[in-house]
Design goal:
alpha+beta, Hypothetical upf0131 protein ytfp
């Protein structure tokens, strides 16, 4: 459907993943100047259980209804936000995970300045499991090749 911004939130990589690395969260600050940009998708609600599973609903993320600003108007949407008990500000994402987030932001046309300040500037670590890291980079390389 396009891109939009969630006001009063900042993008953080502080949600503890199953692999103990940092995963994304739109963290609520309540501050008017804070924004998280993202892509908005329309979906058939019959597909929601599968998405809930893929997004780890109940395993560190909660599904939350939000108001998203799109081209000067507001629309309702839902997203998955980290449960407080899963937040650890010392976490860092694995480099392959950050690469997924960057690829998604770029391919969905998020603002360049936002990508640079909120995603690209975030540090990352190599995955201590080389096979998992290679598998994820293979997926990313295949996507990039398919997109041109």
């Amino acid at each position: 459907m396009g891109t939009g911004e969630l006001q009063g939130h900042v993008l953080r990589f502080h949600k503890r993943g199953v692999d103990n690395s940092g995963k994304c969260d739109a963290f609520c600050t309540g501050l008017a100047q804070d924004r998280v940009w993202g892509a908005l998708f329309e979906m058939d609600l019959r597909d929601q259980p599968r998405l809930d599973k893929e997004e780890s609903l109940g395993c560190g993320y909660n599904r939350v209804n939000l108001t998203i600003h799109v081209n000067g108007s507001e629309t309702g949407a839902f997203s998955y936000l980290a449960e407080k008990s899963y937040i650890d500000d010392t976490l860092v994402p694995y480099c392959w995970y950050k690469a997924y987030v960057l690829e998604g932001a770029r391919s969905n046309g998020l603002p360049d300045r936002y990508i640079e300040k909120q995603i690209d500037s975030v540090g990352c670590l190599p995955d201590p499991q080389p096979l998992r890291e290679r598998r994820h980079y293979a997926i990313l390389n295949n996507r990039e090749g398919a997109n041109g």
